[in-house]
Inverse folding.
């Protein structure tokens, strides 16, 4: 996959350069990535391709383009997985290259109702119940990924 | 302050109804609130007035209106406080009424580079250094609040 030469890159930034694994869809400005190494089924990241740190580093049209992709993915997460809540976050403290976390949440998940960055719960009964639910949800995640790739391609 | 009768309210939702304390600015659709009970100077919340849980519960025009307010506040936080990073998050797991957290972050703050919902650091040397920086920043926060109220009024 070629990286367009007009996209500014930072040599040491892990989100600059070739697409990371898990690419579901990309256009000239952004990439939609599935997050596989997470206990939260259906977790997706939307990554701006140029090296910018903050939403207000983008032009208004670029912000709108990025958020429209976020909303499309959120709508598909809700439609395909019926989570109890969606969490959206642009943090970037560790990697200051603009990317959005889109995390479906369930009441039984390891951190609910706290943010996924909070310490998890360690109640064995709760953990066992979540394990079954997470397994059922994970079986539906490939269809979510297909829907994201197909739907965003059509836009 | 009157609540417009056409704004749907949920009886038991803490973000429905009259404006909470710390109101900096509001229009018919959203409120901008300063967060006073936080160790993060300049922390602001932007709260949608109607009871909606997710960005995709809003119309596209409503989403744009909400995010434009978020960007205006982010720009002022950067201009007035020069943080090392801005964190944006719409979580709502505890209060599923759409609200955005806008959190200026500094390398020395109690959680950096983690999310503010992660366990903080407990290094006394680091804590002492941050205490001084936080005090200096807090002295600049009233000017940020004034700028938010003045700037958003003019839009």
């Amino acid at each position: 996959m070629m990286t367009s030469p007009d996209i500014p890159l930072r040599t040491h930034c892990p989100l600059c350069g070739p697409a990371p694994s898990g690419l579901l869809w990309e256009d000239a400005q952004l990439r939609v990535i599935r997050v596989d190494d997470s206990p939260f089924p259906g977790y997706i990241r939307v990554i701006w391709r140029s090296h910018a740190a903050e939403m207000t580093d983008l032009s208004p049209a670029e912000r709108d383009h990025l958020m429209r992709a976020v909303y499309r993915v959120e709508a598909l997460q809700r439609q395909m997985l019926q989570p109890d809540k969606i969490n959206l976050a642009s943090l970037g403290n560790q990697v200051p290259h603009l990317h959005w976390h889109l995390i479906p949440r369930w009441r039984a998940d390891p951190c609910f109702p706290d943010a996924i960055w909070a310490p998890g719960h360690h109640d064995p009964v709760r953990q066992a119940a979540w394990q079954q639910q997470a397994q059922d949800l994970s079986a539906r995640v490939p269809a979510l990924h297909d829907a994201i790739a197909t739907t965003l391609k059509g836009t």
Q: What stands out?
A: Chain B has one domain: 10-153. The longest helix of chain B spans residues 124-153. The mean pLDDT of chain B is 92. The longest strand of chain B covers residues 99-105.
